[in-house]
């Protein structure tokens, strides 16, 4: 798809066709959304679709998860006119932090951290990431926010897969993602 082309009718998820499949092998994610971010209307519509379920909800801050969640999270924060909090992989913040170990989608053990002075008790935070595959990374971010007394106002990602972790998140938090129901099984099977 041309990076300047905008379809005459823009249904939810039209921009998913901008994503590119993995050509590098099993150590990489199966689909790359970065091309979607290069398309001005695609990015705007993606962010609008992610925020639509939260219209009217009290949100005090948006948090993006390292690293690709920074793109959508910062864009969502700008649209909402809220602050943006980066939830980082361990070792990148030079201030007081709270750490949370987790297992990522590839099965690797990692640690995520957040600065302790950014989340106050009762602060309502919308958590944003590019993708929720197994749910481990998002669950660690949820735990960090809640351990600091924050409230998870919602979870937003281009896709929240129907995995055990994805279901755990959907059962407990208000969620938004961009994949139309008819396409969800294909995304869950990584097709």
UniProtKB/TrEMBL annotation:
Its EC number is 2.4.2.7. Residues 57-172 form the Phosphoribosyltransferase domain. Coiled coil: none annotated. One of its GO terms (biological process) is purine ribonucleoside salvage. Pfam families: Pribosyltran (PF00156). This is adenine phosphoribosyltransferase. One of its GO terms (molecular function) is adenine phosphoribosyltransferase activity. It is found in: Cytoplasm. The keyword Membrane applies. The lineage of its organism: Eukaryota, Metazoa, Chordata, Craniata, Vertebrata. Homodimer. The chain crosses the membrane at residues 61-80. It catalyses: AMP + diphosphate = 5-phospho-alpha-D-ribose 1-diphosphate + adenine. InterPro entries: Adenine_PRTase (IPR050120), PRTase-like (IPR029057), PRTase_dom (IPR000836). Gene3D superfamilies: 3.40.50.2020. Pathway: Purine metabolism; AMP biosynthesis via salvage pathway; AMP from adenine: step 1/1. Keywords: Cytoplasm, Glycosyltransferase, Membrane, Purine salvage, Transferase, Transmembrane, Transmembrane helix. The keyword Transport does not apply. It comes from Ciconia maguari. Its main location: cytoplasm. It comes from the Eukaryota. GO terms for cellular component: cytoplasm. Belongs to the purine/pyrimidine phosphoribosyltransferase family.
């Amino acid at each position: 798809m041309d990076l300047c082309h905008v379809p005459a009718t823009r249904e939810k998820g039209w921009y998913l066709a901008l994503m590119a499949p993995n050509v590098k092998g099993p150590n990489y994610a199966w689909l790359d959304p970065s091309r979607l971010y290069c398309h001005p209307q695609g990015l705007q519509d993606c962010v609008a679709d992610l925020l639509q379920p939260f219209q009217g909800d009290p949100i005090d801050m948006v948090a993006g998860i390292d690293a690709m969640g920074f793109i959508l999270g910062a864009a969502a924060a700008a649209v909402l006119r809220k602050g943006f909090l980066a939830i980082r992989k361990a070792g990148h913040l030079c201030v007081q932090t709270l750490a949370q170990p987790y297992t990522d989608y590839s099965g690797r053990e990692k640690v995520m951290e957040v600065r302790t002075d950014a989340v106050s008790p009762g602060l309502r935070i919308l958590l944003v990431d590019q993708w929720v595959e197994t749910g481990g990374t998002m669950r660690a971010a949820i735990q960090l926010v809640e351990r600091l007394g924050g409230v998870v106002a919602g979870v937003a990602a281009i896709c929240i897969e129907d995995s055990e972790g994805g279901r755990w998140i959907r059962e407990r938090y208000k969620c938004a993602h961009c994949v139309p129901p008819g396409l969800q099984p294909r995304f869950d099977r990584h097709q």
